C-alpha cells in the first residue's frame, strides 16, 4: 500500500512526457489551487493503462494541467508503447500518478526514488527511439522519500526485477532466407535459444504500427529462456526494437519466424532471424535434426 496522506501545501509540478517524438513539453504549473480548481471523476474505461493501480477515481485537471478527459486520453495513449516494453514494474503507476492522480484532498506526487528507478530503466528505451528523458520529468522536481509521496518498490524487489533476463535496445539482425539446413543448424549452435513465433502488425489509433506475438511460442532450443515468460520477452523485444520489427514484418498477415539469440549478462539479444515458409524444407529439416545434432 504505497498511498499515504499527502501534505496539504506543496508546490505543484507539471510535466508532459516525450516519447518517440509524439509529445511536446509544457511549462511548470505554478500557483495551481488544488482545492478549488479540481474535481473527482471516475477513471474512464478508455484509460486502460491506469486501471488496477489501486484506485478508481482521479483528479481533473491533473498534474499535467489537462483540463478535459479528451486531453488525458490523447496524451496517455502516446505513452502506451513505453509501458508495453516492460522497462520497469512501476512505470505505469508513475505515469498514472501524473495523468490520473488519485482523488484525495490534495495531489499525491510520486517520490523522487520512484522517478529515479523508472528513469534509469526506461530512459535507455526512450533513447533507443532517438529521444532523451524529458527535462520536465527531472527527478529532482519530485519530493524526497521522507515526504508523503508514492514510494518506490523495495531494494529487494528492485534487485529481483533486475535479475530477470530482459530485452534491450540492439542493432537489428538481418532477416535471412534459409537455403541450407546446415546453416540453420549452425545458427542454433551459435546461440543458446531458438524459438518459432508468429508475428503480426496492426495500425493503431495514432496511425503507427503495433507488433504482436500471436499464439504460443514453439521452442526449438529453450536454453535459458523460461517457458511461461518467453512470449512476453519476445513481445517486449519487438516494442523496444521497433525499427527491427519494421524491417522484419512487411505484411499485415500473421507470419512465422525462427528467432535465435542468447542471454548475455541478463540481456536478451537476438542474433539471427529466419523467415519460416510453410513448405520450407530446410528449416523443417533443421528443426528435426536439431534434436540429435551435436554442435
TrEMBL record:
Main localization (coarse): secreted
GO biological process terms on file: canonical Wnt signaling pathway; cell differentiation; determination of dorsal identity; developmental pigmentation; negative regulation of BMP signaling pathway; non-canonical Wnt signaling pathway; protein stabilization
Gene3D superfamilies listed in its UniProt record: Frizzled cysteine-rich domain
Sorted UniProt keywords: Developmental protein, Differentiation, Disulfide bond, Secreted, Signal, Wnt signaling pathway
One MF annotation (Gene Ontology) recorded for this entry: Wnt-protein binding
CDD domains given in the database record: NTR_Sfrp1_like (cd03580)
Occurrences of domain NTR (ranges): 172-295
GO cellular component terms given for this protein: extracellular space
Domain of life: Eukaryota
Compartments it resides in: Secreted
Keyword Transmembrane helix set for record: no
Keyword Ion transport tagged: no
Similarity field: Belongs to the secreted frizzled-related protein (sFRP) family.
Protein name: Sizzled
Species for this entry: Latimeria chalumnae (Coelacanth)
Origin organism lineage: Eukaryota, Metazoa, Chordata, Craniata, Vertebrata
Gene assigned in the entry: SZL
Amino acid at each position: 500500500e504505497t498511498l499515504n496522506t499527502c501534505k496539504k501545501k506543496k508546490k505543484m509540478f507539471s510535466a508532459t512526457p516525450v516519447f518517440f517524438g509524439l509529445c511536446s513539453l509544457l511549462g511548470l504549473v505554478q500557483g495551481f489551487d488544488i482545492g478549488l480548481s479540481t474535481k473527482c471523476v471516475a477513471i474512464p474505461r478508455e484509460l486502460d493503462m491506469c486501471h488496477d493501480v489501486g484506485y478508481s477515481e482521479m483528479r481533473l485537471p491533473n498534474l499535467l494541467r489537462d483540463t478535459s478527459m479528451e486531453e488525458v486520453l490523447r496524451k496517455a495513449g502516446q505513452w502506451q508503447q513505453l509501458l508495453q516494453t516492460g522497462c520497469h514494474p512501476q512505470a505505469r503507476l508513475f505515469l498514472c500518478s501524473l495523468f490520473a492522480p488519485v482523488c484525495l484532498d490534495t495531489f499525491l506526487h510520486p517520490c523522487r526514488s520512484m522517478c529515479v528507478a523508472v528513469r534509469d530503466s526506461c530512459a535507455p528505451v526512450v533513447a533507443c527511439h532517438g529521444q532523451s528523458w524529458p527535462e520536465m520529468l527531472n527527478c529532482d522536481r519530485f519530493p524526497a522519500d521522507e515526504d508523503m509521496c508514492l514510494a518506490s518498490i523495495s531494494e529487494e524487489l528492485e534487485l529481483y526485477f533486475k535479475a530477470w533476463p530482459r530485452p534491450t535496445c540492439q542493432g537489428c539482425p538481418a532477416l535471412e532466407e534459409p537455403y541450407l539446413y546446415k546453416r540453420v543448424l549452425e545458427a542454433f549452435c551459435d546461440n543458446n535459444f531458438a524459438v518459432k513465433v508468429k508475428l503480426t502488425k496492426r495500425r493503431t489509433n495514432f496511425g503507427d504500427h503495433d507488433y504482436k506475438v500471436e499464439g504460443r511460442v514453439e521452442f526449438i532450443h529453450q536454453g535459458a529462456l523460461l517457458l511461461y515468460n518467453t512470449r512476453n520477452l519476445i513481445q517486449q523485444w519487438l516494442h523496444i526494437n521497433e525499427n527491427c520489427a519494421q524491417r522484419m514484418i512487411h505484411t499485415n498477415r500473421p507470419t512465422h519466424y525462427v528467432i535465435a539469440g542468447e542471454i548475455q549478462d541478463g540481456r536478451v539479444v537476438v542474433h539471427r532471424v529466419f523467415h519460416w515458409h510453410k513448405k520450407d524444407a530446410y528449416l523443417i529439416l533443421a528443426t528435426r535434426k536439431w534434436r540429435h545434432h551435436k554442435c
